[in-house]
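Sequence only, no structure available. Ideas?
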Amino acid sequence: MDDVRTEVLVNTPQLRAERFTAEGGAGLPWQRCQIAERVLVVTQGRGYCYRTFGRDEIRDEVSDGDVVRIGKMIWHRVVAAPDQSLTATLVTSVPADVELRR
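Reply:
I predicted one. Tokens follow.
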């Protein structure tokens, strides 16, 4: 993850937006959001968005202007294409009135 730079653009109780830039095959680690859906907005470059659904893994190629919806509780990873850079923003909608039950 040495070739990934991240920056938080917005962080409120309702919304979180994180911009990241990945170089040459580097990317974000596998992650999932348990309380909300996420949206990936690609602003520059080319890469891949991996999502898993049980045992199935889907790889979508993404490039300038693409928007990918990532559902709640879905494992996902975003990686720059080899010999390319990728700049994108990961937006998470966080409801202010979420009730967590144990």
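Confidence is low (pLDDT under 50) at residues 96-102.
Hope that gets you unstuck.
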